[in-house]
Amino acid sequence: MKTFLLSILLTSGAATLLCQTPQHSFRFADTSAVWTQCQSIFFEGPQGIDAVSHTDVYGISKDSFFNNFTYQKITPGLVSPSAFVRQDSTRKVFLYDFDLQSDRMIYDFSLNKNDTLRLYNSLHLYHPPLEDTIKLVVDSTDTVIYGTARKRMFLRCITGTYCTWYRGDVVIEGIGSLNSHFLSPYVYEFWSIPGRVFELLSFKESGSLHNFSSNCEPVAISEVSSDKINIYPNPTNSTLHVIGTSLTNTFYLYNFLGQQKLQHTFTNSTTINIEQLTNGIYLYELRNSKGVTQTGKIVKQ
Question: Which of the chain's ends, N or C, has fewer CB atoms near its CB within 10 Å?
C-alpha cells in the first residue's frame, strides 16, 4: 500500500498554480506543535504473537502554497516523507492526496452527537472488496483542556466492510487521533497483515507538553504485566474480570487486525469469558456513558 504521506513534487504546472488567487486557510495546529507517536507492528513470532514498536516525532516545518491553498507542512522525525494539511473556516481538516491530486477530508470538527460523516477510503484501491467510502457516526463530544479548550469527538464506523476492521477512535481538535495515526485514523491503521497499531504518546505546543501515554515498548507475551486495576488477570486463559464505574460501561475487545471480537455492556463490574478466543494479543477499549475511555492490551494464553 502506498502511504498517503508523500513528498511534494512541484511539476512544471506549479507556475500556473502560483498565478491563481490564493484561498484563505486556517491552521490545523500551532506552528510550534510536535506530536510523538508510537507505532507497533504485530507478527507471528516463535513464541506466538509478538510485536516491534518504535517512536516517531512529527513537527510543522513550514507553510507551502500549491493547489491554490496554503498548507501546513508536517514532517516526521524518521524516514517518512511529509504531509500537507489545511483547515477551513468550517472546521474541516484536509490532507492533500498526491494519488488523487486533490484534497481529502480527514476531520470535521463542526459535527455534534449523532451526526454522520463520509470519508474517502484509499484502501479500496489495494483491497477491492472494500468500499471507497467509510461512513462514521459521532457517538459523543465534549471539551478538554490541552493548552486551550479543544473539542473532543468519539467516532464509530457504521457502514461498509471496513467496519469489521475499524475499532473506533477518539479525536481532538488541533491534535488529531489518539488511538491511531494522528493524521489518518480511518485508512492507515490496519491495512495489511501484519497488523499495525498507532498510539499518540504526547503533544507539545507553545512549550506545554501534554502526555497521553508513556508506553512504547515492544510487546511480547512474557512482558505484559497483570497490574491493571480495571482489567485482570492479564495474561489470562479463560476469563477477564472488568471493574468499571457506577455508570454504564461498554467493554470492546479487538484482535491485532482491529477486528472486533467482543462487546459487553455492564455497570460497576463484570466477568467476561474469552476461552473461545484464539491465543494471542488483543486490544481492549473500556468506555463509560460519559465518554471516558481506557485502552490497553490483553494476552489470551
Answer: C
Listed residues 223, 239, 270: the one ending a domain: 223
User: How many other C-beta atoms can be found within 10 angstroms of the C-beta atom of residue 15?
Assistant: 9
Residues 146, 171: one domain?
A: yes
> Do 181 and 301 belong together in one domain?
no
H or E segment at 150?
Answer: strand 148-159
Most distant CA atoms of the chain, gap in Å? 66
Q: Is 216 helix (H, G, I), strand (E, B) or coil?
A: coil
Closest CA to 188 of 6, 57, 4: 4
pTM of the model: 0.61
Please give the tally of structural domains in the chain.
2
**Integer Cα distance of 98 and 8 in angstroms:** 8
| Domain match, 196 and 242 both | no
Tell me, yes or no, whether 137 and 165 share the same domain. yes
For every one of its 301 residues, what pLDDT tens digit does the chain have, with 9 covering 90 and above? 433 333 333 233 333 333 333 344 468 888 899 999 887 776 656 665 566 777 888 899 888 999 999 999 988 744 456 888 999 999 999 988 777 788 888 899 999 999 998 887 766 666 666 677 778 899 999 998 888 889 999 988 887 666 665 556 789 999 998 877 888 654 443 333 345 677 888 999 988 888 887 667 544 333 333 333 467 787 888 888 887 667 788 888 887 666 788 898 988 888 999 999 988 878 777 777 765 666 677 888 8
CA 211, CA 193: separation in Å to the nearest integer? 30
- For residue 107, what are the β-bridge partners? 93
How far is residue 250's CA from residue 178's CA, in Å, rounded to a whole number? 19
